[in-house]
């Protein structure tokens, strides 16, 4: 039974970082976030790929018990992202985004997904996020977005966000969407919109959780070498949503725990390109890093 | 008896932020850091001002029981800094720095300071930092610097840092001085130089403490409004050094506590221009905010 439905991009990424270059590797927000969630719950993906999508990538997702009944294969090319990072790896620079099969995609919900109590709308057009949201009656909905949609579909995006419970958003995007330099003010605005929580992602600086009147600050895991930050924010949010879906507990204390699990997962993601590291860790590795987070912040 | 000697700039700051402008207000690294330290110990300043330095500023420092026996008044003009902040208040933009009386200043150590066990070399030329260091035999020496000295006196600066025990440095400056994008690598390089600890200051994102093999991540205090960040790093370091001087304990656990006290003080500093807020808080206010830091990071 699928407990967490995840929608968002699935694609082939071509990435250059100071530590190397890769071409057409498995990527996309729905991939990273469902892998992150898969350590805690049974995710099912709603998305689309083209006929050029390699079967080996399908096998990777299946290996993690991620349901692909909602993954359509359509004539045409798979979504592609081409970008690079300079020494400040907090900032992704996009060279090219090809929506390809997403341009004509309309989601259909498999029966197996229909009773899922948790939904994560990873980054993709607000229209598609809304279509998926309307197919389900989840207990808790998380959503992420990016500057492209803030700048091009602001109204639609805010309409979808209002119907969700947890917003995941980068610090720069929070400042842009809520038109304030203060992350605390941005956080309050989200809570005033009626959401249960907002998680502001700050890359290597960790994240901030705002709930009604309370703030939690999670550190970034201090890594000596970051190979490729692509997917870190998605892996993080997937981990958070997966842990909440597993524990069925929306309390402040439990969301804080979920955020540390998500942070631990994100810290593994950045240690290699694509899913290189995430496919080779166990729940014990995650628990161990969770313990290190405790030590890092304790005083 | 002076327990913590502080050297560094004392000056008149002219500052513009999105929330207002001020002209010739009391500022300088030695001022903010000794005010920060004064909540925990008895600091004494070694520095210089010109004949134009207002007596009311002297009274402010005296009110905090900061010894000024090492403060010379020399013919000429007081040090001046003129700068501004844009909406991203993590970044100070310097319009003009006038060294003025610092150009001819040679420090003399008052007898009352000579038995001080703690020394804080706030930002000023590495030459002056070294001169002050050679006048004393402290148990623990802290040091701060800025990009100007990294770019213009790199060799001398590294020579002084090597003789200190705790380095305080901004994240961008750490990357510049140690020629690495990784703060973890920069931290390790400082420990390899033989220092006891390095504290990397990250503005609103808090700070990182590196000691031998251990890392501590302190959050920034989430403020809704920041009026003027000038002096926050100095107030922070002064608070850290003051707390260590009070407790005479260099253990990891105690430095972590010191860092949270310093962070609490810095968070008050930014709530007003100059010492507007710092002159109006008590140790109880600091203890209260210390408790809030506990809550902010607990999971």
Would you give an account of this structure?
The structure is a homodimer of 299-residue chains. With 299 residues, the first copy, chain A, is an alpha/beta fold. Chain A has one domain: Ribokinase (UDP-N-acetylmuramoyl-L-alanine:D-glutamate ligase, 3-Layer(aba) Sandwich). Chain A has 10 helices and 13 strands. In chain A, the strands form 2 sheets. In chain A, strands 5-4-1-8-9-10-11-12-13 form a 9-stranded mixed β-sheet, sandwiched between helices. In chain A, strand 2 and strand 3 form a beta hairpin. The longest helix of chain A is centred in the C-terminal third of the chain and has 18 residues.
Q: Give me the side-by-side strand order of the main sheet of chain A.
A: 5-4-1-8-9-10-11-12-13
How many E-type strands of chain A? 13
* Termini separation of chain A: 42 Å
Rounded Rg of chain A: 17 Å
Number of domains of chain A: 1
Oligomer state of the chains in this structure: homodimer
Structural class of chain A: alpha/beta
Largest interface: A-B, 39 and 39 residues
| CATH second-level architecture of chain A | 3-Layer(aba) Sandwich
Q: Could you name the CATH class of chain A?
A: Alpha Beta
Using the alpha-carbon principal axes, give the shape of chain A: globular
CATH fold description of chain A: UDP-N-acetylmuramoyl-L-alanine:D-glutamate ligase
Low-pLDDT parts of chain A are none
**Content of β-strand of chain A:** 25-35%
CATH superfamily of chain A: Ribokinase
User: Biggest β-sheet of chain A: count, sense, barrel?
Assistant: 9 strands, mixed
């Amino acid at each position: 039974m699928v407990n967490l439905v995840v929608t968002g991009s699935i694609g082939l990424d071509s990435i250059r970082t100071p530590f190397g270059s890769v071409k057409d590797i498995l990527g996309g927000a729905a991939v990273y976030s469902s892998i992150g969630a898969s350590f805690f719950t049974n995710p099912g993906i709603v998305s689309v790929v083209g006929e050029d999508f390699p079967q080996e990538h399908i096998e990777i997702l299946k290996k993690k018990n991620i349901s692909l009944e909602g993954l359509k294969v359509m004539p045409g090319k798979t979504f592609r992202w081409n970008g690079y990072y300079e020494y400040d790896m907090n900032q992704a620079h996009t060279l090219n985004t090809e929506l390809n099969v997403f341009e004509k995609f309309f989601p259909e919900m498999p029966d197996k997904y229909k009773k899922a109590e948790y939904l994560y709308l990873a980054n993709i057009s607000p229209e598609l996020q809304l279509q998926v949201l309307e197919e389900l009656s989840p207990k808790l909905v998380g959503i992420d977005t990016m500057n492209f949609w803030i700048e091009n579909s602001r109204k639609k995006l805010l309409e979808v966000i209002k119907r969700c419970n947890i917003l995941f958003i980068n610090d720069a995007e929070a400042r842009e969407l809520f038109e304030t330099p203060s992350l605390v003010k941005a956080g309050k605005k989200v809570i005033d919109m009626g959401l249960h929580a907002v998680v502001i992602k700050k890359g290597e600086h960790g994240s901030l959780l705002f709930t009604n009147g309370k703030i939690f600050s999670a550190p970034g895991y201090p890594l000596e070498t970051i190979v490729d930050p692509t997917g870190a924010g998605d892996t993080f949010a997937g981990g958070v949503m997966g842990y909440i879906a597993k524990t069925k507990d929306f309390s402040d204390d439990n969301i804080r725990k979920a955020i540390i699990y998500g942070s631990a997962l994100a810290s593994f993601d950045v240690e290699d390109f694509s899913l290189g590291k995430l496919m080779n860790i166990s729940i014990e590795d995650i628990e161990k890093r969770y313990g290190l987070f405790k030590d890092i912040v304790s005083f």
